[in-house]
Amino acid sequence: MTNRNRCNRSRVSKNRVHKFRQAVLSSLLAVAVLASGSLALMCGAAGASADTSAYATASTAVGGVNDSSITGSGGKISLDVRDADIRDLMSALSLKMGVNIVLLEDKAAKVSLQLDNTSPRQVLELLMQSQGLAYLQEGDIIVVGSPAKLHKDFFNQMHVTRFDTYFIPAEELKRLISQMGLSLKGVTSDANPNVLWVQGTVQDLRKVRELIQAVDSVDAQATLNHKTITLTHISPDRALELMMMAGVLPERFVMLDNRIMVFDRKLFNRWDEVQAMMQSIDTPSAVRQKVFVYQLKNTVAGDAGQRLEDLGFAGVKTSAYNYDRFGKELMVACPPQLENDVRSALFNIDQARFKTRVPVMTENGDNARNKLDAHRQLLSQLSGVPVSSMYLSNNLSGTAKEPLYVLWVEESPDKVQLIKDLIEELDTGSSGSSDE
What we know:
The protein is α+β, with helices and mostly antiparallel strands. The chain folds into 4 domains: 3-154, 3-Layer(bab) Sandwich (Phage tail protein beta-alpha-beta fold), CATH 3.55.50.30; 158-204, no CATH class; 227-349, Ribosomal Protein S8, Chain: A, domain 1, CATH 3.30.1370.120; 356-426, Alpha-Beta Plaits (2-Layer Sandwich). It has 14 helices and 19 strands. A hairpin with a 2-residue loop joins strand 6 (134-138) and strand 7 (141-145). It starts with a helix and ends in a 10-residue tail after the last helix.
């Protein structure tokens, strides 16, 4: 690059920053006239410009945000605030980020956040998400406000970004973008069918990029199909964290305000399980809960979950997906301080119990014994109970013309019940009762 090109690029950048500052000042003046000073500027950048230095700055030591509320070093901070004024929190963030933050909203919203080892930028993103706000940035100035207000007052300063795709056509991408509910003003196709131009806020442009990463693959036509998880109590970040703990984290997804668009076809066949799991963890208490999957050996998940519930642990929820009668995996959501106690309880619940002898099937007529033997082989394969624990009786009818045989099992009550449930599922009928 020649010196002249470098100078021209530098001049363009300075002009853009200057125009952005002018737009900020215009908005400041307009809001000041309407709201008499309800707009706040948080200064954190060294050497704030003369254009903005006339506006008052907020202190980080008021409104519940003080030196002990935000701690950390090395680019990461820990945050613990309760019912703090959003302006005070942004003021503290501006100092940590070394930028000037302009808040356009006139309502002094109260914010509660508790985060550990998080970058100031991530804190800002989470704060925006929790309050339904967006932001624009140019140089050391960040303007925060509702998407509608940013589009109204700063649309000309929004970046127009080109997105290139390899496999998915731009028109298909536009269709998906329209389903995301983003506040994008300009989404236009190019003469090139794999180029899309988009104009919007920083967050919205990032979501478009995430969408392309999720669907732009060799099997693009297949990845266009998606399913949506809609959340009521927990954030998409927290939902994905809990899904990861449960071992069902999608590989292709896009997080929105209270939704997760999932493009992972491997999960579609298990979608009933995913929905059942989300219903059990999307609760107010799950915001801070620990989630794990407990692998059982002797007890089916449904029975283990019921026995755990009978123990009366407060704030503990379980889910056996759709296989509570047969599965051995139990998902547990519990307060972190109870995790060890819950695991210990499940360990005791899952202990092998004394064996009992129980009849589970009867068969009469021709080939009755052969039929029961065939069922015995299948039930052993399905339940894991060895064939040697299943017995065929002698003919109980007393006559060879109408033989009657019984299949009986010598096993723990849990495994006996598993076999009886399998028989019911196979719709072959069962008889006898368990002497538990």
